[in-house]
Specification:
The chain is α/β, with parallel strands linked by helices and 227 residues long. 42% of the residues lie in helices and 20% in strands. It has helices spanning 15-25, 59-71, 93-114, 134-147, 170-178, 188-201, 213-225; strands at 5-10, 30-37, 47-51, 75-80, 118-122, 153-157, 161-163, 185-187, 207-211.
Length: 227
């Protein structure tokens, strides 16, 4: 297991991000979770809150400066748990791209420029930049944006229908219960645990890996077995 590591998290105040942060804090070897937010959050042990204007032109540079400072204390990974999910229906494609490509892309570039090698990216099942469906297309574009940054280790998480999430409507949970494989239901606690497991267990691995529902459940179980 990765020893004495910290994680810089974007999107940690959301449902999935909150689950990932909780799982990271349950790992004794995690010395600190640095949560980048737009507004201050309540203080917690081993959580440092850094407030940035994520839409600012210098967001990538500010992220890089922060990441270098955290790296001085030891190993650091980064994770973007940003995701609009069902709320995307109320967003224009331009608004989605501004968040999912612009903000997440700037965060990834800042982390990479500072020397962080491992990056975890929350995406969605079936994501491809060539899809005719807007949300899936934007998720695919986000993956390509972060992929092009060039992290030695990029882990892309593509959940199906996220259950246990206040933003997931009942009809979607029902649909997920009958959907096949990667498009089916996955509990957000398992999703959060799989992100924590990737960071704790695979920080030194190289290349890109894409994890769908079955792989995320297996990865979460690996972390559970180490406790």
């Amino acid at each position: 297991m990765n020893q004495n590591f910290a994680v810089i998290v974007l999107g940690g105040t959301g449902q999935v991000g909150g689950a990932a942060v909780a799982e990271l804090l349950a790992i004794p070897q995690c010395r600190e979770v640095v949560m980048v937010t737009r507004k201050p959050i309540a203080a917690r042990a081993r959580v440092r809150n850094v407030v940035f204007d994520t839409g600012a032109a210098d967001f990538a540079e500010r992220t890089a400066t922060l990441a270098r400072e955290v790296l001085e204390q030891g190993a650091v990974s980064a994770a973007s748990c940003v995701g609009v999910g069902s709320g995307s229906r109320r967003w224009s494609e331009q608004e989605l791209q501004r968040l999912e490509l612009g903000v997440v892309g700037a965060f990834a570039r800042g982390c990479h420029d500072a020397g962080i090698a491992q990056f975890c990216l929350l995406s969605a099942a079936g994501s491809t930049a060539h899809s005719r469906f807007r949300y899936v297309r934007v998720m695919g574009m986000k993956e390509d944006t972060v992929r092009n940054v060039g992290f030695p280790r990029l882990a892309i998480f593509r959940p199906g229908v996220i259950v246990g999430n206040a933003n997931t409507p009942a009809w979607a949970r029902w649909l997920g219960s009958i959907a096949p494989g990667s498009f089916g239901n996955i509990d957000q606690r398992i999703l959060g645990r799989s992100i924590a497991a990737e960071i704790a267990l695979h920080a030194l691995d190289k290349a890109e890996v894409t994890r769908e529902n079955a792989a995320m459940k297996q990865l979460a179980a690996e972390l559970t077995q180490t406790r």
